[in-house]
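ARCHIVE CARD
Drawer: 12
Card no.: 0347
Subject: one protein chain, sequence and derived structure
Cross-reference: see card 0346
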Amino acid sequence: MLKLTERLGPIAADQASDTLTLPFELRIRGRLKAKSAAGRELGLFLDRGPVLRDGEGLRAESGEIVRIRAAIEPVVTARVAAGLPLARLAYHLGNRHVQLALGSDDARPDQGWVRFPPDHVLEELAELLGATLERHQAPFDPEPGAYNQLGHGHSHPHSHSHSQAHHHDHDHDHDHEHDHDSHPHGHGHTHAH
């Protein structure tokens, strides 16, 4: 078994000796056994981290490189006018804390799209926001989290675990305390008068 242990980020197809095609639900896992396109047994032994992206390279202990491909799977693509309608669609769907892929079609520069796994609640919401839905088979390669991107680019030259953990905890605690402080304060204030 070829043990893949290192994430390389996006690589060109000719840099890899083999490919591994996985659906989204398997690209979120750091530990996995699978078969490559060439029929080889592969084992993923990766740090828990961001979703494996389409075109990302993984290095084996032996130095060999395998390129990840996003599998064709059932998806819903919600198309809507570019600008505010697209921003509103992405905002409301993203507010549901689901993975979303975003894009546009060269043939329709006046439109954009948001893609997600089939989900009737999200589909209804998208239609309420004026989107036209297409239920089809396509690769699902969602947007990476902005904090992952910022942290990833910033973290390698520095020791990041303490500083990033501190910032995350601070931001979370601040929001958490703010929410709780504002409700009891307003509620208690009302009763006091």
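Annotation on reverse: Helices lie at 24-27, 84-94, 120-128, 146-155, 161-192. Residues 185 and 191 are 10 Å apart (CA to CA).
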